[in-house]
Hints:
Layout: E1 3-9, H1 14-23, E2 31-38, E3 41-48, H2 51-54, E4 68-74, E5 89-90, E6 96-104, H3 107-111, H4 115-118, H5 125-139, H6 143-153, E7 156-164, E8 167-176, E9 181-185, E10 188-192, E11 204-209, E12 214-219, E13 222-229, E14 232-236, E15 241-244, H7 258-264, H8 266-290, E16 292-297, H9 300-316, E17 320-324, H10 325-331, E18 338-343, H11 350-361, E19 365-370, H12 376-380, E20 383-386, H13 399-418, H14 424-447, H15 449-459, E21 464-469, H16 473-488, E22 491-496, E23 512-517, H17 525-540, E24 544-549, E25 563-566, H18 575-593
Parallel strand pairs: 16-17, 16-18, 18-19, 19-20, 21-22, 21-23, 23-24, 24-25
Antiparallel strand pairs: 1-4, 1-10, 2-3, 2-4, 5-6, 6-7, 7-8, 8-12, 9-10, 9-11, 11-15, 12-13, 13-14
Helix pairs in contact: 5-6, 8-13, 8-14, 9-13, 9-16, 10-11, 14-18, 15-18, 16-18
The structure holds glutamic acid.
Amino acid sequence: MCGIIGVISKKPVLHPIVKSLMRLEYRGYDSFGFAGFLQDDFLVKKAVGAITQVFNIDDYKAFEECNIMIAHTRWATHGGVSEVNAHPHISFDSSNCIAHNGVVTNFQDLLRGAKEVWNIVSQTDTEIAANILAEGISKKRDIIHGLSWAFSKLEGEFAIVAMLKSNSNILIGLRRKSPLIVAKMGEDIILASDELAFVEFGKQAEITYLDDNEAVICKGHELKFYRFEDDSFIEIKKDFVSKKISAEGSDLGEYSHYMIKEITEEPQVIKNIAASIEENMHGITEDLHQSQINIAGSGSAFYVSQIGQYFFGQLSARYAFTHPSDEMLNLKQFKRNDHLIAVSQSGETFDTLEVVRTAKLAGAYITSINNVRDSTSQRLANFPIFQNSGKEVCVLSTKSILSQVCCLFLLALELGYRNGEVKTDAYDVLTSEYKRLPDALEFVLRGQNELIKRIAYQNCNIEHWFFIGRGIYYPVAMESALKFKEVSYLHAEGMPAGFFKHGTISLIDDNFYTVAFIPSRFNERRLYEATLDNLYEIKARGGNIIGIGHTPITCFENGFFLDYVEVPDLNKYLNSCLQLCVGQLLAYHCAVALDRNIDRPRALAKSVTVR
Ligand code: GLU
């Protein structure tokens, strides 16, 4: 998390850098700050809050002439949310000023013995990094040797942009595992966490991506790149690609929130992913056919992965080892004949990238499903799948996860066809059902939105919720509970419906509501009946249930559900998408009813680039 930017230009940069930082706000929004030069000294200004909400340009007049600046929007990892902990941070000797994304894991060791000398003012690991840079640069004969020394001392993962007091014409970028992109755009050189930051500087950019353990020193317009090898930075050449820069699709239009705008785009993203996957489909299927299948993701992407696990199990009769990225490496030793499917909207999720890097090193093949082209995960993968869902601005993933679910469905279907589990007739039926999914989703969006809204407004005062389901509806319930709590701040626990009776049911009373994700009676009779058994157990204890299912309400006894949302019955795989959509709408309307910060819920960030 955290968005960082550094700009060096021939003209003043305050106005574009402010707007750029606003574009990076999705990466963290508890506080922000800017640094530039004023008469050969650092000028730093920071504030608590989200930049789009509390920024006032009148407070930043002193920066107006600056043609080199760095900026940061924070998602705190070390040290509370306060002005003093906000970035940029200046070293003890005022020799450098840095903005940092990531975590310096050995900051306490580095601090030991130096506390007094460094006169630490914040609780951040970042201030320690600034001081280590200062020590390096003062100890060594030139900047690059100083950076080498500092880089060898810092452990953890980080992207850093830095300015030096001794030279107000130099901007430095360092990367170890956190993203940092370099752009040349006319008179401007920009270093930033995300290409979105470049939008304010023009429509065309020459871009290069710093890889792990690389550095860039921008001296005016002259750029030098380095790679850290054997304890020092060695100069390297990097290729630039010419890229069109646009913020297309990030306008709110007629909608009141990005979340609802993006949910509404789901029918389209389903078409887009089917087209995107084509190019790689054959290669991936052939490799999956011969390899052990592993799927990893974090947060929502993990629940997507679990839905995919059901697809692979049911469509291609293959067990896919599926774990949350942060735990996968504790459970799994990757080998040459493994195939890892890594799922991450941003392609920069730290925990998922750790799995990708480890698997790759072991010789495994990587398929990476991401909605950001050229993200780190896309660049590391053998088979990058770009979701092409359009920019997702809301911090909560909605359309991008629907697209990922569909991507896994299409992969599992193709593999099933390849290995003979899915015969030609069934393949054709499933393919045509997939084509009907956008219309079925339209039906949910248009036909059931008002009902879901009414349910949300009527029940948003309920503080405790269970979200339960069996089979594929278990991860659907987990994901829907996650979405619900993320944005409504209400307590929601997702759980397999069959597991519920083994203890958790003790919490049921008439104040603890349950959202039940019910399979199709027609397509999945056994699972449907088993789910209903579990719902009877809840009813018997006085619980209130809101049902989401494919069976007409008339099939249930009167009053069984407090409320019920019926969605089309497509097939036992794709029904998960329709139910996910209902879960998203329920979370959205509840959060609106409670007046929550929909697109930027508290304490969250869109791209989780720390461990
Ligand atoms: N560790 C730094 C801090 O807490 C940066 C956090 C981040 O990149 O998320 O300020």
